[in-house]
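tool=predict chain=A
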Amino acid sequence: MGTWFAKQYRDLGRQVTISDIVQEKARKASSEIGVSYGTNQEAIKSSYEVVVATSLDGIKVFLKEFAGDLTGKIVFDVASVKNGVSSLLSNLGNRTYSVHPMWGGATSGFYGQNLVSIPVRSLDDHGYLKFFE
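tool=predict ok
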């Protein structure tokens, strides 16, 4: 799913950097779709928005390890709001949420698809509500 999102962002003209704890995996994926690759630290540092697409166990490790670097950035996951992920996202600030694509990876684009976007902070918080909308 991470590669799928990377392709979509690339097609929208966005600068994309793929990272993975296994650098060869990131290097291969980035080469296949024509985007940059780097370490997690490099990708986060150079990004305004971070898409976290990893396993449930992996996302918790990632969010804990890089919480300080992610604070203030737009961060969303395509994992799950289960198992404490939503509270970890919430701790990063008012620019975080969780998404759940309701399609498979063979879909060619965002248009005409259903994407469930889930707030991870209270919608009573005006600043978060404004961002989330």
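Strands lie at 17-18, 36-37, 49-52, 74-77, 96-101, 115-119. The first helix runs from residue 2 to 11.
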